[in-house]
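Session log. Operator J.P. requested a structure for one protein chain; no other inputs attached. Running the standard single-chain path with token output.
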Amino acid sequence: MLSCSLRRIGCPGSGRHCRGIQPLLVAVLASAVLTEKLTFPRVLAGAAGVLGVALIVLQSQARLDALGLAAAAGGTVSMAAGTVLAKKWGQPLSRAGRPVTPLATTAWQLVAGGASLPFSCWCLKDYLRIR
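Structure written below.
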């Protein structure tokens, strides 16, 4: 999704303004899924992060494209959901009952993400110009 958003939006870095909202989105999702308190300092810190990223990244030559923004937002939502779900599910255990290393957990996440790529490319082939 990040690649699609960068290709569609055009200006390098302009797709990152959607990523700037991720800490705020994680706090909101954590309050819903993990029943953590959504406190004013968390919301204020998230809003300050969004504003800071916007001030640094947004430029006058940035083109706003609906598909590019949707792809950036989709990537941000999926990363925020992954962060919250990883905290909810905790560290998985191996067959021997020992905690799995973070490297192994990351590898399985990448395998799962890679398994969805053919379907995503097929759905977006007209927009991505894949033949």
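Operator note: The radius of gyration is 17 Å.
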